[in-house]
Amino acid sequence: MQYIKLTFIDAVTGIPVTQEPAANGPVLPPVQGLVVEWERESAYPTDQPELFGTCPDESDTDLAGVLAVMTQAEWDAEHQAELAAREAKDRHLWQITRLAFRNRFTLPEKAGLELASVDDASAPMVQRQQAALLRAYLADVAAATFIDLKRPDTRAGVEQLEALGLLAAGRAAEILDAPIRPEEAP
Q1: Least C-beta-crowded within 10 Å: which of 71, 74, 135, 155?
Q2: What is the pTM of this model?
């Protein structure tokens, strides 16, 4: 089996998109038995996509659009690097500023959180511990460089606020899963 990196070619001229745009539409190079396994999606959008596939050993790979014939180790390393790049890109898609996070809460919700975080020395110990946990959570939010809405601890914290009755039912999902607006990005 051969491991290859390839790109599209023009459907009529056969010129790779790495040399000029495919004016007649893009097609894959005619590699016999080609199976495209993955693409370098972390680079999207791009006019020069990179695809990675396999083909039988006897397939001709000396074709326009075939960018490289790789060893399996090289191919696997490229794949691992791509997965890491996608994860980093996806992480960034769910990051917002601290202010943007706070603004996802209504003013009455913010006031309720502030009141619930006040330590009342005459209150039962359980209530005082809950207030202390809330203060610690709010301090963590204040200390964060940004808020990652997909981090498990971020999600658990907001869901706990709902479970404690500090947020109405369904609000945690609204706060955590609302689409990120451009002005919210760090």
Answers
A1: 71
A2: 0.55
Which residue's entry shows tokens 């990675």? 52
Distance separating alpha carbons of residues 159 and 114, to the nearest angstrom = 17
Question: At residue 164, does pLDDT exceed 80?
Answer: yes
Please tell me whether the peptide bond between 124 and the residue prior to it is cis, using omega within 30 degrees of 0.
Answer: no
Q: Which helix (H) or strand (E) holds 39?
A: strand 35-39
Q: Are 99 and 176 members of one domain? A: yes
Q: 86 and 113: one domain?
A: no
Q: pLDDT tens, 108-131?
A: 999 999 999 999 999 999 999 999
The Cα 26–Cα 43 span in angstroms is 18
Whether residue 122 is found in the same domain as residue 51 = no
Task: Take residue 65 and report the two structure tokens written for it.
Answer: 């659009």
Range of the domain at 105: 95-184
For residue 11, what pLDDT is reported?
Answer: 93
